[in-house]
């Protein structure tokens, strides 16, 4: 099981790195969109000095990786080292195989480049690896400046986009910023999945009847916990029920049929693991 998972993770890192390289080569790099991170810095250096992007990424990544290992230990692991190397190879290889960009429209390039980079990075992260660059720099900033990793990544991306605005133009820097936003959203989707699940909080005096009807008609679990109104100081029961998106109307119909004055909050749930929903696989040692 362990060997099978390790092989699966390396396949994921490889596939994710290839998809990210495609997004860079066929959309972002040829349109001068330096969408943050090490790839964005390598794009800027390519247009200034004509250094191959993949080679530049590797040259900058190696000392960053060695410094991270020295200061932080081997926490990044072999998969991150592998991802750092393979994406550099893929970028220059894809450049040879696909020498022409698929579009010269900056809007399309920033959008679809961001989507591909987001999908690729998301797959790499789900496989337990990284492609170096921003992650490594952010980890070092966190180590020495005591800044969170999230802010560290934001600082690195902001500096690269600012440099792109100086070297290229403010307009291209804005496209790069849009691409970074798209990439971050797509990474979240790949990591967490597209959720069609809702969580309903129900506050009602008729909580017992509502609970019975939800259990009987919808076959969904209901959790009850006590709450206290901040203004009225009155204690009452709050029901929590997680349902699929298609079941929301049924839930509301049941609740309001019993108590038209019920207070119901329905919110989006990113991921649900457990009976009736997605089952988390158990790894055997």
UniProtKB/TrEMBL annotation:
<feature type="transmembrane region" description="Helical">
    <location>
        <begin position="81"/>
        <end position="100"/>
    </location>
</feature>
<feature type="transmembrane region" description="Helical">
    <location>
        <begin position="12"/>
        <end position="33"/>
    </location>
</feature>
<keyword id="KW-0472">Membrane</keyword>
<keyword id="KW-1003">Cell membrane</keyword>
<feature type="transmembrane region" description="Helical">
    <location>
        <begin position="45"/>
        <end position="69"/>
    </location>
</feature>
<dbReference type="Pfam" id="PF10035">
    <property type="entry name" value="DUF2179"/>
</dbReference>
<dbReference type="InterPro" id="IPR051461">
    <property type="entry name" value="UPF0750_membrane"/>
</dbReference>
<dbReference type="InterPro" id="IPR019264">
    <property type="entry name" value="DUF2179"/>
</dbReference>
<protein>
    <submittedName>
        <fullName>YitT family protein</fullName>
    </submittedName>
</protein>
<feature type="transmembrane region" description="Helical">
    <location>
        <begin position="106"/>
        <end position="128"/>
    </location>
</feature>
<dbReference type="Pfam" id="PF02588">
    <property type="entry name" value="YitT_membrane"/>
</dbReference>
<dbReference type="InterPro" id="IPR015867">
    <property type="entry name" value="N-reg_PII/ATP_PRibTrfase_C"/>
</dbReference>
<keyword id="KW-0812">Transmembrane</keyword>
<dbReference type="InterPro" id="IPR003740">
    <property type="entry name" value="YitT"/>
</dbReference>
<feature type="transmembrane region" description="Helical">
    <location>
        <begin position="149"/>
        <end position="177"/>
    </location>
</feature>
<keyword id="KW-1133">Transmembrane helix</keyword>
<feature type="domain" description="DUF2179">
    <location>
        <begin position="220"/>
        <end position="274"/>
    </location>
</feature>
């Amino acid at each position: 099981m362990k060997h099978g998972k390790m092989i699966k993770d390396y396949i994921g890192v490889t596939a994710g790195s290839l998809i990210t390289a495609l997004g860079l080569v066929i959309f972002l790099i040829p349109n001068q969109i330096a969408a943050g991170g090490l790839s964005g810095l390598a794009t800027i250096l390519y247009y200034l000095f004509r250094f191959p992007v993949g080679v530049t990424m590797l040259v900058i990544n190696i000392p960053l990786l060695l410094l991270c290992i020295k200061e932080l230990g081997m926490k990044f692991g072999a998969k991150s080292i592998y991802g750092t190397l393979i994406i550099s190879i893929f970028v220059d290889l894809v450049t040879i195989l696909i020498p022409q960009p698929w579009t010269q429209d900056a809007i399309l390039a920033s959008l679809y480049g961001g989507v591909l980079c987001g999908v690729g990075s998301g797959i790499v992260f789900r496989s337990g690896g990284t492609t170096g660059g921003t992650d490594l720099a952010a980890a070092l900033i966190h180590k020495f400046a005591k800044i969170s990793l999230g802010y560290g990544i934001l600082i690195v991306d902001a500096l690269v986009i600012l440099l792109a605005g100086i070297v290229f133009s403010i307009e291209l820097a804005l496209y790069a910023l849009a691409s970074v936003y798209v990439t971050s959203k797509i990474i979240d989707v790949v990591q967490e999945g597209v959720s069609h699940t809702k969580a309903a909080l129900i506050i009602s005096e008729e909580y017992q009847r509502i609970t019975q009807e939800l259990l009987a008609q919808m076959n969904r679990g209901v959790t009850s916990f006590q709450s206290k109104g901040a203004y009225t100081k009155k204690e009452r029961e709050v029901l929590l029920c997680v349902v699929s998106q298609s079941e929301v109307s049924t839930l509301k119909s049941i609740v309001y049929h019993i108590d038209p004055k019920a207070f119901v909050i329905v919110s989006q749930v990113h991921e649900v693991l457990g009976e009736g929903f997605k089952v988390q696989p158990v790894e055997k040692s």
